[in-house]
Amino acid sequence: MTRKYLAQLAEIHASAFLPGWSAETFAAHMELASDDIIDILAGGEVRGLAIVRTAIDQAEILTLIVAPGHKRQGLGRALLHRAEARALERGADIMFLEVAADNPAAISLYQNAGYHQYGSRPRYYRRKVNGIVGRIDAILFKKQLT
Question: Which of 42, 56, 100, 129 has its CA 20 to 30 A from that of 137?
Answer without folding.
Answer: 56
